[in-house]
Amino acid sequence: MPFSSLTAHAPRMLGVLRIVSATIFFAHGTQKILGFPASDTAPAVLSLPWIAGLMELVGGAMLILGFMTRPVAFLLSGLMAVAYWMAHAPRSPFPVLNGGDAAILYCFVFLYLVFAGPGAFSLDRANGRES
Questions:
Q1: What is the pLDDT of residues 32-83, one digit of tens each?
Q2: What is the rounded distance in angstroms from the CA atom of residue 40 to the CA atom of residue 48?
Q3: From the CB of residue 104, how many other CB atoms can be counted at a distance below 10 Å?
Q4: Using omega within 30 degrees of 0 as the cis cutoff, is the peptide bond preceding 118 cis?
Q5: pTM for this predicted structure
Q6: 95, exposed or middle or buried, with CB in 10 Å at 0-12, 13-18, 19+?
Q7: Quick one: CA dihedral 82, 87, 90, 93, positive or negative?
Q8: What are the domain boundaries of the chain?
Q9: At 93, is the secondary structure helix, strand, or coil?
Q10: How far, in whole angstroms, is CA 24 from its chain's centroid?
Q11: Roughly how many angstroms between the first and final C-alpha of the chain, as a whole number?
Q12: Which residues contact 111 (CB under 8 A, 6 or more apart)?
């Protein structure tokens, strides 16, 4: 089967990428804000980690549903860029050593969604906001 025949499946796979990455991202928010799964520490209310957790929780849910995908993905991409440079980069210039590889990956997956849109299986598409 030639690779060009896979192009027809691109919108569905984009939707799968959005849903899977947002679900894993959402879990970071549930841990920080809802305490599930349980963690040793919880961020103080209104601290930067708590605000990030709230963005992970609400923004992750919105991306799972594909609701307002482009603006939400833009905000979350920026959140991950800030998280990398504030929390990870000062530890080491190497992402594999500073623990920031996930932040970088989320940053660029979400940035891709800004340009590519939600793909299939989204409320944006169902409501006619995306073709």
A1: 999 999 888 889 999 999 999 999 999 999 999 999 999 999 999 999 999 9
A2: 18
A3: 16
A4: no
A5: 0.93
A6: middle
A7: negative
A8: 9-126
A9: coil
A10: 8
A11: 28
A12: 73, 74, 77
